[in-house]
Fold this sequence. Notes:
Elements: H1 10-31, E1 38-40, E2 47-49, H2 50-66, E3 71-74, E4 88-96, H3 98-103, E5 109-116, E6 119-127, E7 132-137, E8 142-144, E9 147-148, E10 161-163, E11 182-184, H4 189-197, E12 203-206, E13 210-211, H5 212-224, E14 228-230, E15 245-246, E16 249-252, H6 254-263
Parallel strand pairs: 3-4, 10-11, 10-12
Antiparallel strand pairs: 1-2, 4-5, 5-6, 6-7, 7-8, 8-9, 12-16, 13-15, 14-16
Helix pairs in contact: 1-2, 4-5
Amino acid sequence: MPGTEAAPAPGSELALLIEAAEASGRIAMRHFRHGPKVWDKPDGHGPVTEADLAVDRMLHERLLAARPDYGWLSEESTDDPARLSARRVFILDPIDGTRAFIAGEKSWSHSLAVAEQGRVVAGVVHLPALQRTYAATEGGGATLNGAPLAVSSRDEIEGATVLANAAQLDPKHWAGKVPRMERHFRPSLAYRLCLVAEGRFDAMLSFRGTWEWDVAAGDLIAREAGARVTNAEGRPLVYNAPVPMLPGIIAGAPSVHAAILAQV
Length: 264
């Protein structure tokens, strides 16, 4: 019966994602800083390049050939409702940070995850222009280029370093005074989560609706490094929803996360 097969071992699942992410990087780097063709998506959903589409095609062919019973959810593919009945589903963004890619900046990524019944069990965020590969399996810890990751040890919000765009620190989002935090920015949400996992920043947040493919892999990587990750309402993130959008995201060192959540 469909969906009754034994799940692949975590290591084999992660190896599949890493190999696919590295193949994505080879395709993307052929277009990077070489004037790729760019189109605007309908309804103001941002730009897409020929590199995004080429990576998406390769991933669809490669990953579903390896796991034909899995569902598929990608930013650059037409949504197939069949994913909702699949036990496991690939959730991915062929290029997260497309605007940065177009601008010739290096902080874009390939974000690939496998979710099972709403939770992410394996994830990879690969930044080929920076030669960084973040990876995690559920219960297996998180790594950067094979080295273990650990979240920041900061225990207070005042002075914390946070990755967010300026709009997220608008007083309308906060109860009382906006906390005194040091704001930084990276265009890729997946990369922001990984930087929190690495301990280079204390937290990241977005109160806007957040597409699942932007954060699925980074969510697992951050949690496996010791971060707490929830939606903007404080609930755990659940994936493969009929409308695959989360009500914002907050990730950080546990005490910093708790302080942020208490003040929004």
